[in-house]
Amino acid sequence: MKKLCLLALTMLLCLTGLASAEEKNDPLAAWKPKFDPSGAEYTYILSNVSHPVIEGVAAGYKIRDAVWEKTNGRIYVDYRPLSQLGGEKDVINKLNMGAIQGMLSSSVAAANVADKLGIVNLPYIIDTFDKLDQFRNDPELWEPFSNSPSKVVALDFTGYGPYGWTSTTPIHTIEDAKKVNFRIAEAPVNTDIYKAWGLQFNVMPWPDVPQALQTGAITGLDHTLIVCNITKKFTIAKHFTELNYAEGIFVHLTNKRWLAKLPEDLRKIFLDTVREESAKSREMTKKQFDEQYKLAQEAGVEFTKLSDNDIAQLKELAEPVIQKWGQKIGPDYLAKVREKLGSN
User: What is the pTM assigned to this prediction?
Assistant: First the structure.
């Protein structure tokens, strides 16, 4: 009997140690729900490719908890960040088919859903936090954007900061940039922009970036300071050019059929909660940008800016791309956005 008790105790300790190790190895352990979702009437599977340490990604968990509380457990937002459901192109297909119900899509990938969503990637159009707020809060600008996809609807968005260049060598001029091999996202808008700028680039899924950067297959990234610092890209590429040509956002896309099936009272709570939590998240992103900027400086990242003449040249080179995409986005809509935001 003593031997059996000792064996049972040993097994219990081993299992406890195993559970503890698994918890340590689970990067999302801290975000697990503090409630049992099994009794929910409706489940909303929401995908994202990034880590919730980024404020714009953490918003998914805050939406989960707020929706659960406000609906008294009738809707469970089953949030799956960190590419648990695959890359963004695959997830977009699942979303359109209704296999999943929601997606916090990066702004660069959103252009694959509807051409009009690509307006947020066009250089120097919606390129500051203030312009982003103005764009969201003006119904004439926001509603055509929100309703442009056919099978999904853009409910709102969160952010991940202004875009720039992270590189292994400093970039002080456009000529410096021409020596860098940039990674850009899988988005047709970005491909057109980099061709127009005359820069070297590789279209590459985000999960492939660390190895490509370590091996030298790429020597630069088109991304934001927040993402590059949090994901430790500055450990290899220690230079950041403050290009600020676009604001990175996660567009909250929802399958229209799923939304239509919700009872009216639940649908209102769900939509109101997404709007409220998204607005809070955008404010937190502004704070996170300031924090990450300071941390990157303290870690020895070198910050540079292009001259006004070089920025003017980038804008001039990008104008044909803006006009080309304007035909897809809608020339009148693009003109209205530029005029209202002062981006002409």
Answer: 0.89
The 3-state DSSP composition of the chain as helix, strand, coil percent (nearest 5) reads: 55, 20, 25
- What is the pLDDT averaged over residues 163-188? 96
Type of residue found at 308: D
CB atoms within 10 A of CB 187: 20
Q: What is the mean pLDDT of residues 254-278?
A: 98
Contacts of 15 (CB under 8 A, 6+ apart): none
List of domains in the chain: 29-341 (3.40.190.170)
DSSP for 266-324 reads HHHHHHHHHHHHHHHHHHHHHHHHHHHHHHHHHTTPEEE---HHHHHHHHHHHHHHHHH
Cα separation of 258 and 263, whole Å? 11
Strand partners, 247: 162
Distance linking the first and last C-alpha atoms of the chain: 84
- C-alpha angle 76-94-114 in degrees, rounded to nearest 5: 105
Q: How far apart (Å, rounded) are the C-alpha atoms in residues 272 and 278?
A: 10
Question: Pairing between strand 181-184 and 152-167?
Answer: unpaired
Look at the chain and count its residues. Answer: 344
In tens, the pLDDT along 68-114 reads 999 999 999 999 999 999 989 899 999 999 999 999 999 989 988 99
| Strand (E) or helix (H) holding 137 | helix 129-137
> Please, are residues 341 and 125 in contact by the beta-carbon 8 Å criterion?
yes
- Which of 287-299 are b and which e, b meaning 16 or more Cβ less than 10 Å from the residue's Cβ? ebbeebbeebeee
Residue 99 main-chain phi, psi, to 5 deg: -65, -30
**Confidence label for 24 from pLDDT (cuts 50, 70 and 90):** low
- DSSP calls for 42-78: EEEEEE-SS-TTSHHHHHHHHHHHHHHHHTTTSEEEE
